[in-house]
Every structure is written in structure tokens, then in C-alpha cells.
Amino acid sequence: MKLVQLSLVAILATGMAYAHDEATTDGKVTHGSVAEVINDGDNSNGEIFGQARSFYIDRTYSGTVNNNRNSWAVGGYAGYMTPVMSGLSAAVAVYGTYGFDIHDQDADVIGSASYDPSLYGRDFDNYAFIGQAYLNYKYENTNFKGGRMRLDTPLAGADDARMLPNLFEAVVVSNTDIENTTLIGAHVFRETVGTFGNIYGGGALGLTSGYGLGMNEALSGDFVNMGTVALGKAGIDGKDNETSGVTALAAIYSGVEGLKLQAWDYIAWDILNAVYLQADYGYQMNEETKLFAAAQYINESDIGDTLAGNVDSNYFAAKIGVKYADLTAYGAYSVTGDSSGAINGGIITPWGGMPAFTQGMVTRHQFFANTDTWKVAATYNFKEYGVKASVYYTNFDVGAENQYDNGTAWTASESGWDIQYKVAAVKGLSLRARANYPRDFKSGLDWDEYRLIANYNF
């Protein structure tokens, strides 16, 4: 497996220099030609799977900070899944990232202002680790999965936005005995934070952006208690923040044509209880035109030992759009209400969950307390050429109760674009170019950021 991974990394490094990617956020894997050669079309001996990735990022700050930083790294993951025997299977996968020194100053010099930290581990290190190692058992309509794995749920997820995603140690049970309904029960014990977490560095901004106060403990492949990831080793009044983890219960229903309903309840023991609701509806007007609408709601309240202090937060959002032929466009609006708490309120999401309809590519201010946000976006699919192009604009009316610049209210915005190209000549290969232009991310702080990404799924 290691030789396969290294050879794919070499292909990307030499043949796609400065290709850049933001990753497959849906967790799906498209098997390519390398896997077909290895597996020889026969799964009786198991299956090799993985993704090789090359990522280049360049960000130029202006305003209160004037600086340019950029980084280039290659990496990804490679794994093996056993054949299914009497419903039982197992998988293991190695994840890793290797960043190149592309400036006069080495990336591992702490405090280097020339490198973007989001492609590396702790203190700009390169690292590899076992990111997935689980058993899976399926009996009739019930599936059990336990061990190290990737999760993609609304409030605890991979957030695969840079080189490596968040990964978790968990047990997950799902059942589909009820027609058109999936029931899910899960318990998450520990998390290792992906490379994107370095952007937040364990600060208060991360709490509403997918990363906790103790995320620095969980970098570079270290799996850490969920309470510690959220709040650090010692929190309010010096309490130990290790907890019993996070229990998640969910029901997903799709028994009405065009309608999908989902309800999640996250019990983060001794921290908070979070309820997430979402409804999606699509109506096919004619062969070329489809209307769609969606709504989402989050409620958070403190429980148990209230390690995060008082928590009382609500978030509402709605989205409406149309798909006409190859063009899709939508508008979304969200409100995070007034809330109180030791961490200045808002929606706390320290474990990678980021389901908001109104988030930007990098600006996630929609979860700040007393903040209204709107977003418009459009995508055109050039199917003949394998190209999909998107543009968006989002506006955040930030309330003074926010934890980033507490006591200050301001208006932030972000525009950007995204071009994806699926290379028809090389199965499994996709290229991506992205850009974002936040203005007043914090009052007076702007930047222009560009990314080049290449993913090879096998």
C-alpha cells in the first residue's frame, strides 16, 4: 500500500506541479485505472482504495495585515478493504501529507509568515498515520461499523477543505427496516483534526467555524477526547474537559416524492445538546426546469456539568433555487439569534460540522450570535467538456455579541468562484481552481486567495 501511495504522490508531484484541490466533500470514491489493475476486477482478495492529492494555495492579505503566504503539498490516503465474509469486512487506510519548502525560509520554522499552515500538521510538520481502521458488519437491514473512520454528519464531520480531513474513533449503527427511513445511532469517542484546523489555531473563532479550543492537541494524526478537542485540557474554573464523548441519534425520511426530512440530536456529554433539523423539497416543473427549496434549524443548550458555560443558541436558514437545463442558481438567508454563554454565544461547532446554507468558502461568520447572513450562488455545468463553474457572493451582518471581535458589530462579505474539470482521458483524475475574496473578514482585514487542486481517486 505504501508503495502504491508513494508512486501516486510522485505522479502528481512531477506531472501536475502546482495543481490544487479542495477535495471530495461527499466522501464518495470513484475507482480509477490503478485500482482496476491492482484489483484485477476481482474483489475476492479485497480491494485497494485511496486518493492522491496535490494542493497549492496562495493568500495575499491587505488592510490591517499586509502579507503574502503560500504553500504546496502532496499526500492523501491509501487503504485496503477485505472481502465481505458472512456480512463481516474490515478496512485500514494510511493518511499523510508532505509539504515542500518553496521559500528561502523552511516551513517548519515556527512563526514563518510566508507559508500557509493549512496543508501541514502541527508546527508545519509532515506526517503519516493510520486514519481508518474499522470493522463493518451487515445483517439484513442493519449495519454496524466501529473503529477509526471518516464521518460526514451535519455537526460532526470531515470538513475536507485542505490536505487531510478530520477523522474519528466511533461506533455507528444504522437500520432501514422502516420503509423509506434510515435510523442512525452513533457514539464518537475521539477525533484527529485535519490540516484545515491550523487556520484557527485553537482560538475562539474556531468554535463557530468547525474547530475547538483544544484542537492543537488533536493535530498530526493524534486522536484526542472529544471534550478536549472542543474546550482544551482545562476549561472554565479549571475543570478537566475530558468527557464521555458525543452521542448522535438521527432519522432520515424520504417517503414523499421530492421531499427529504432529517432530524439529528447530538448529546455532547457535559457540554451541550444540539438538535439539527433539515427539510429539502424539489419539484420538477418540466423536462428542463426544477424548483427546489430547503430549510434548516439548529438549537443548542447546555447539559450536565456545563463545561462550556451556559449555552442557549438558535440558528434558522432557508434556501430557494431553480435548475434550468445546465444552470443552477439559488439564494439563501440565515439568522443566528441573541444568545448567552461563556464563549459569547452563537452556534458552537467544534468537531468539523459545517452544514450552513450561507457559509462562504472561508468566511463562516453565519454562526456568530445576533448575525444575519444572505448568499446567492450559481453553477453552470458544461457537460460536453467535463467542466463545472460556480460563482457566489455572501454577506454577513455581524452582531456585537460575536466571539471574534466581541463588542464590535460590522458587515463582512465574501465573493468567489470555483472551476472543476473531470479529465476524461484519465479515469479518477479531477482538477480544480478556486478563489475567494473576503472583505472585512474582521473590520479592515481583506485578502485574495487562490487554490489549485488535483485529486486522483483509485
UniProtKB/TrEMBL annotation:
Molecular-function GO terms, alphabetical: porin activity
Record-level GO cellular component terms: membrane
The protein's name in its UniProt record: Porin
Family statement drawn from the similarity comment of this UniProt entry: Belongs to the outer membrane porin (Opr) (TC 1.B.25) family.
InterPro entries: OM_porin_bac, Porin_dom_sf
Signal peptide: 1-19
Native species: Sulfurovum riftiae
Keyword entries, A-Z: Signal, Transport
Highest taxon of source: Bacteria
